[in-house]
Amino acid sequence: MREPRDGASKPSKSASSATSFPLILDIDDFKGDFSFDALFGNLVSELLPSFKLEDAETEGGDSMQSGHLRAPSDMSKYSSQVIVSPLFPEVEKLLSLFKDSCKELLELRKQIDGTLYNLKKDVSVQDSKHRKTLFELEKGVDGLFDSFARLDSRISSVGQTAAKIGDHLQSADSQRETASQTIELIKYLMEFNSSPGDLMELSPLFSDDSRVAEAASIAQKLRSFAEEDIGRHGIPVPSAMGNATASRGLEVAVANLQEYCNELENRLLSRFDAASQKRELTTMAECAKILSQFNRGTSAMQHYVATRPMFIDVEIMNADTKLVIGDQAAQSSPNNVARGLSSLYKEITDTVRKEAATVTAVFPTPSEVMSILVQRVLEQRITALLDKLLEKPSLVNLPSMEEGGLLLYLRMLAVAYEKTRELASDLHAVGCGDLDVEGLTESLFSSHKDEYPEYEQASLTQLYKVKMEELRAENQQISDSGTIGRSKGASVVSSQQQISVTVVTEFVRWNEEAISRCILFASQPAILATYVKAVFTCLLDQVSQYIADGLERARDSLTEAANLRERFVLGTSVTRRVAAAAASAAEAAAAAGESSFRSFMIAVQRSGSSVAIIQQYFTNSISRLLLPVDGAHAAACEEMATALSSAEAAAYKGLQQCIETVMAEVERLLSAEQKATDYRSPDDAIVPDHRATSACTRVVAYLSRVLESAFTALEGLNKQAFLTELGNRLHKVLLNHWQKYTFNPSGGLRLKRDITEYGEYLRSFNAPSVDEKFELLGIMANVFIVAPESLSSLFEGTPSIRKDAQRFIQLRDDYKAAKLASKLSSLWS
């Protein structure tokens, strides 16, 4: 806000009362940080007393400098009047001031609105001009792009035309060059077609040694063209020189070119050989490059390989044989041969590696040369060595074991095959082009591998036969050196005649070695499974045969002991001397039976150990090789069970004979030791003897002694079945034995003691059925102890023993006197 200057104020803006102060509101008052409070304060600061007093204190009566309003010159006079005036005397002035201010504000707003309208109009005009200018620029740019497109199209067209012109020029030049070369070739062809066998009138090109490469190239082109022409016309190439009918075509040219090419090839080969002897690799490479135009250089490659010392030097070949086999074939062994092959194959690999360096430096296609070289090494040098090393024996007339047998051949074959495969791998690493070196190596052994399973089976059979002959010879030697005389009735089975786990382990070791060769020779899982099954079947046959034979030998001793017992069975009327001799012989037979029993149990134990070895070997080594082939594992398991069934049958029969042997001796002891007075003492009123009878003591002692080997030899269900059968047989024998005697009460007590003794021993059998039978025997023994009137009460709780009890009651010494038959008739009915 500011005061009007020089009468510049408009009448409309000063229409206030005479005492008011005209105000001018400037547009600048509303710019910047506008505050209504500040504007209002500036308007009323000169009219309100509070504002005036504050100004007087701060400014000393000067006019306000902070706002745009200024007081007139007579302010001091007016100020004194205000101080003494009443409160708010300027209300009228303020109202007039506010009215003027409102008019000022309306006027300012009109000015601002007019200004804004003019600006908007100017902006609209300028925007229209700007849009028009942009439209014209866009049209110009579009025209410029069209010009650029036409220019690019023109440039592309010119470029294509230039390229076509260049192609035509290149084609024309190529045709010119071809025509020139064709003219030259026709000229040379006419020279070769002039007369048969005449190569003296040829151009200097074909005789200049410095232009051999060019001459070879031209000769090959001429030869190809001439042969193609003859082929089109169906004219056969003349087979002999001297055909003068050259006018018919190019037959003479073909013949002359063939002769020239042969001559040139031989000349290059001679130069190649001369350079090879001097180790001039550059000259060799030049010759090889030129010779590559003749049959792709095959003649040069084959010639180079054929002239290597390892293929033509006889001393080298003899040295190979001497290194591997030695001076004498009898001295060769698989280990020595393996060392010799390793040394020889290392030498061959080193030689081939050196040749590879030369071949790479000389030949344009070294891989093809290396293929020929490696193939020649395997087919000539290695084959010659293998033919001497591996002489295939006949399966009809087998070589003796003194000569190594079939096993030596198989070991040599395995060593040679393994080492040769290692050589093939080393040669492949050195480089052999596209040659299938592994397949070629397999073909070297194909004749041996075709019949390999038959040889492996024949070898195992031969080893088994030789081993059995050795064992028989040892047994015969021991038998001849002296054993217990047969005349004394002894039957002794020596340890050499027994089944040996060591021998079975040796069978397994042979089989393991054969299986390792099967793994080496078999390339497919199915083939390996076939090999393994055949070899494992040999082991099953050998072990089952060996165990069955061993068990049969042990059974023979049991049979012989049984024959000895039957031989000395006497009648009733014999002299005392004869009876004594018979008793002595019976003792000897019993000793033989006990010895044969122990021998058979040892045989059974070793048979079980042998079968366990076979089963463990099958689990650890064989099954994993059969599992990849469907059905192979199950078939092998079934075959194993079938093969061992013969041994199981022999073991079963032998165990039955063992039971018969034990029972026969028990019967003999009972018959010899049991006395009638043991169960019917004449002094029955005296205190009874509670000891077991002598016969019982002897029988229990015998069983404890003889069955010790059975407890050790048998296991599991076999042991349980054997002891249960033995206990049942003993129960039956004792029942039959006691039927021969009569019993008084004291004898019944002693019988009960015997039954207790037998029962306590038989508990070690862990056979519940046997224990139950002897418990019932103990109950039945009470029939000899109780009074006659108490007999019926004994069977109230155990009716199952009434039948046996009826027979026992008849053995009471008072059976008839007490008329027990009639008294107990109601019990039996």
From TrEMBL:
The Exocyst complex component Sec10 N-terminal domain, residue ranges: 93-208
One GO cellular component term noted in the UniProt record for this chain: exocyst
Keywords: Coiled coil, Exocytosis, Transport
InterPro entries: Sec10-like, Sec10_HB, Sec10_N
Superkingdom of this protein's organism: Eukaryota
Any one Gene Ontology BP term: Golgi to plasma membrane transport
UniProt name for this protein: Exocyst complex component Sec10
Family to which this protein belongs: Belongs to the SEC10 family.
Stretches assigned to the Exocyst complex component Sec10-like alpha-helical bundle domain: 214-823
